[in-house]
Specification:
Layout (H helix, E strand, L loop, with lengths): L2 H6 L1 H5 L5 H11 L3 H9 L1 H13 L12 H17 L2 H16 L14 E6 L6 E8 L4 E8 L5 E9 L4 E9 L6 E8 L6 E8 L4 E6 L2
Antiparallel strand pairs: 1-2, 2-3, 3-6, 4-5, 4-7, 7-8
Helix pairs in contact: 5-7, 6-7
């Protein structure tokens, strides 16, 4: 695979559609390319929205097992245009449009009023990473506001929700730039109700835990 092809695979890697061999080659490239680290992180909102839909869909609703190449190419190209334009509001709209395109008619949009929001704060003295998570309960799960400070980049990190039953769900991911002490802020959601969540963990994509945030 040529270097240029590897750059173009950032979107496919973030969406989890690369085969095992290409995924291995791209991860090797990712460790040497800060640009691709940033691109992978920018797909976090879309992947979280798609994962939330998959978890919240009743078993009786048949979904398409694999999106066709035209849809995937369109998603990746569109997301790249959004990234260059810097318009984050269109990123969320595109994620919703992809869900509707894959699933087709008859899909209900889940909503409902949220319960009182809870703010959770934690800092790990060993890693120096601090995080704040604001959790608000809904009928479909929990809406999350996320703020993380991590000055030890570059690396790609993710927020994982830990269920009281021991289950783990990746909520979203983002890229940390080198020596950047500024806070990374984003919004996402998880298909677990607040009463079913034991806490959250910020991890690197290779599984190293950076900070644990227990649920009160």
């Amino acid at each position: 695979m040529r270097s240029l092809d590897r750059h173009r695979d950032a979107g496919a890697y973030a969406l989890g559609v690369l085969d095992e061999a290409d995924r291995f080659r791209f991860e090797d490239h990712l460790g040497q390319c800060p640009g691709c680290v940033a691109r992978v992180g920018e797909f976090g909102s879309a992947t979280a929205a798609l994962a939330l839909y998959a978890r919240a869909t009743p078993p009786a609703v048949e979904t398409v097992a694999e999106a066709g190449p035209v849809l995937l190419d369109g998603l990746v190209s569109g997301m790249e245009r959004v990234r260059r334009a810097g318009r984050r509001r269109w990123l969320c709209a595109m994620a919703a449009a992809v869900v509707l395109a894959v699933v087709g008619p008859g899909v209900a949009v889940l909503g409902g009023s949220g319960d009182g929001a809870v703010r959770l704060d934690a800092r790990d003295a060993r890693t120096g990473v601090s995080a704040s998570v604001t959790a608000s309960g809904h009928e479909w799960g929990t809406a999350l506001g996320i703020e993380v400070r991590d000055a030890r980049g570059p690396r790609v990190c993710e927020l994982v929700a830990v269920g009281k039953d021991g289950s783990r769900q990746t909520v979203t991911s983002w890229a940390v730039r080198a020596h950047d002490a500024a806070a990374t802020t984003t919004q996402s959601a998880v298909a677990l109700r607040p009463q079913d969540i034991a806490g959250f963990e910020v991890r690197t994509v290779d599984g190293t835990r950076l900070v644990a945030i227990p649920m009160r």
